Amino acid sequence: MKPLVLTLKQEPGQRLDLAPLVPHLLEGKSAKDIAEIELQTTREKVVAGDIFKIRSGGGVETIHFEGGSLRFDNVGQGLKSGEIFIEGDCGKCAGRGMSGGNLVVNGDSGPFAGSAMSGGRLEIGGDTGGFLAGPLEGEMEGATGGLLIVRGNAGERAGDRLRRGTILIEGSAGDFPGSRMIAGTLIILKECGKLPGYLMRRGTIVLANPPELAPTFVDCGTHQLAFASVFAGLLRPESRAAARLLSRPLARFAGDMAALGKGEIFFPA
Amino acid sequence: MRPMKRNGVRIDDSFAEAFPMRGTAILITAPNRHWAVQAATTMTGFATSVIGCGAEAGIDCERPGKSTPDGRPGVRVLMFAMSSDTLQTQLVNRAGQCVLTSPGSACFADLESPDRLPIGDQLRYFGDGWQVSKKFLDRHFWRVPVMDGEFLCEATTGLTKKAVGGGNLLIMGASFETTMRAAELAVAAMNDVEDVILPFPGGIVRSGSKVGSKYKAMMASTNDAYCPTLRGAVKTNLEEDIGCVLEIVIDGLTEDAVAEAMRAGLAAIVKLGPEHGAVRVGAGNYGGKLGPFHFHLKDLLP
Questions:
Q1: How far apart are CA A92 and CA A77, in angstroms?
Q2: CB B134 to CB A223 under 8 A?
Q3: B175 and B245 Cβ atoms separated by less than 8 Å
Q4: Nearest by CB: B150 against A164, A185, A225
């Protein structure tokens, strides 16, 4: 079946909540029905038809957004299956709470991308804001599963309170990546800001270029572990550079000893 | 009835009677081929027959590094038992004592199936709290710290309830040498078939059994009808020209795999011919009343 195509008419005048535009909520709706869905986040009423030219190909399992905006919030929220492609930027909380399917943003994204994500695949082609996969105010944990790939750079505190799942940042990350990590895996291929793994409890951080680590991380020696090779194999289709990094002998530092101390930071020895 | 003949080898109009079993497969990897084979050999030791060993297990095939999850040489092991519970116990005991202990080893699931048997989920407790869980999408692994680094083990592996045990060939020849030659060639041909193992030593069993015994304590005893030294003394199944009988037993993950292995073995025996190999090939059954799978030799002939 052909995808549903939503073409941006012009840059929206206010922030929009795109959470209703996911496959499982559009099931059985015609292009006309979709055009009547409200998207505003402020007083001024806006429906999808005001923002997009809508072309229904018969199916809603695949949705293409032609054109994006940093005002597009909650894109792909709660995605369960199917695919969403955005040819452009998006705002905060892209892929929030998604549990399956594939969400691809071919531009930049705002903060909290992949927050509360529990499964599926989220790829951001450009840069992303702070608190990648992190919890919102009042939430106890960040992402609990899935695969999150950022081709550009990430803001500060990427993977904050990460519980499970894999985050790969091909560019650089801001300060405190992997802060308060509960578990899961965070891989950063370029530069990394200060104090990675700050107060992490468990989990794995792999850094191509580590800054000076906090003194609460302790040297466990250099190893070539089978699990790193397995992850290299699993990540190779997504990122050859990540696979190369994980195939090398890696120094292991355990920490953060100021917290539980069962986490680890790896970097090339 | 005149026996069927292929290349001078007499083929019994008989069938191998086989039983449903529970089966599983794992892939053991190690830093090199030697240690992968070592771990697999140790794990599949003393696993010839469920009667006395709890499970039947063997090496299916070797895998080169480029086709294993961690890029190191691997060996695929198949295990079979009569119940899921026994298979579970045997799998964890054997993996725990023979693979976890083997230097540099790692252990992966190698059977696609919705039914799962925990493996790393059990062995992880060896880590005494230092074990690490790693998930990547649907795959779940456990990392257990050990003295040479880490033991990596997949959390669960697949379980099939469609496995088949007890496919067999009875190879009969004039002397030990010729019969053995035919049996060894058949084993070599059957080892190339995927999804099957030959659980007995080197794939060959020389002490085929019948059900029951004159002694109360014995469930099974020697198959006297196929013992050449008793040919004059009992109701024998052997003709004058047969001086030795060897059997090959086959367990497979599917009925098709067992049939394929028997076909390959038969072809090898027939090709060798009666002069230097077997003069006759038969198969063991219990009259067709006990096992639901019947592999008729005439259907499997080359």
A1: 11
A2: no
A3: no
A4: A225
* Average pLDDT rounded to a whole number, residues A70-96: 96
* A-B C-beta contacts closer than 8 Å: 57
Cβ neighbours of residue B130 closer than 8 Å, sequence gap 6 or more = A262, B144, B145
Q: Residue B255: what residue type?
A: E
- pLDDT, tens only, A5-25: 999 999 999 999 999 999 999
Check A183 against B133: CB less than 8 A apart. yes
| Buried residues in B150-172 as b, exposed as e (16+ CB within 10 A) | bbbbbbbbbbbeebbbbbbbbbb
Chain A: closest CA distance from residue B124 (Å): 14
Q: Are A190 and A209 in contact (CB under 8 A)?
A: yes
Task: Decide: helix, strand or coil at residue B270.
Answer: helix
Q: Do B149 and A146 touch (CB under 8 A)?
A: no
Q: Select from B154, B156, B150 the least CA-distant residue to B131.
A: B150
The three-class DSSP label of residue B186 is: helix
Q: How confident is the model at residue B273 (pLDDT cuts 50, 70, 90)?
A: very high
Query: Which residue numbers of B have CB closer than 8 Å to A's CBs?
Result: 29, 69-72, 106, 130, 132-137, 139, 141, 143, 149-150, 152
| Spatial CB neighbours of B231, under 8 Å, sequence gap ≥ 6 | B238
Q: What is the pLDDT of residues B42-59, one digit of tens each?
A: 999 999 999 889 999 999
Question: Residue A41 has what pLDDT?
Answer: 82
Helix/strand/coil for A6 = strand
Quick one: average pLDDT of A93-118?
97
The DSSP letter of residue B98 is: I
- Please tell me the predicted confidence (pLDDT) of residue A192: 95
Indicate whether B148 pLDDT > 80: yes
% of chain A residues with pLDDT over 90: 94
